[in-house]
Amino acid sequence: MAEADKKAKVINKSGTLKMTDETASTRTQRDISGRPMRRNNRRDRRNNDNVPKEFDTITINIDRVSRTVKGGRRMRFKALVAIGNHKNKIGIGVAKGGDVTSAVQKATTKAKKNMIEFHMDGETICHEVEARSTGADVLMKPAAPGTGIIAGGVVRSIIGLTGIKNLISKSLGSTNKVNIAYAVIEGLKQQTPRSEWVTADQKGQKESK
What is the reported pLDDT for 142? Predict the structure, then answer.
């Protein structure tokens, strides 16, 4: 019994009692209120990151914004994030946060919720379209194979997350990146497949009837 007591009482250099490994494994950590603390399994979280993801995310722009309150200025960050599957699904999100990480996470969550599915003609868009959002006006035209993506920064970033490989684009009006991004999404929404086009012959037949 004396030997067992000596093994159980292990004293640290500071003079405090040190628990054995067997005792520590059976103990439950509790917070200030006495409730058991939940442990995050970091090993499982790290393994889950290695799973291939269907969607890719890109942070297009981060702005620092301020709001004047009674105590002074309150600084925050605004993030513009786009998410796509390199096919025909794309979404954008804009959110604010106290730091860059939280702003990007909020914007990514919004982008996932606001994803759209649009029509394509091979590796380009179905037809020419001019979309407008607030003050931004974006013109997009289909291009022949091998042309590539001829577009500005915001348009190129968003189109790069889709399956479109050939496109000619021109940004008109406002240079606000958020408005340009919404205009691009609106233009992709308006894409109509070739099978649903209304030709001049079909219009004449409807008028004759």
Answer: 93
- Give me the domains of the chain, ranges plus CATH numbers: 56-193 (3.30.230.10)
Give the integer Cα–Cα distance in Å for 168 and 187: 13
Measured in whole angstroms, the distance separating CA 150 from the mean position of its chain's CA atoms is 23
Strand order across the beta sheet in which 129-133 lies: 129-133, 136-142, 167-173, 149-150
pLDDT at position 25 is: 60
**CA atoms of 142 and 155, how far apart (whole Å):** 14
CA angle 185, 191, 197 (to 5 degrees): 165
The stretches in the chain having pLDDT less than 50 are 1, 6, 8, 43-52
Residue 41: burial class (beta carbons within 10 Å; 0-12, 13-18, 19+): exposed
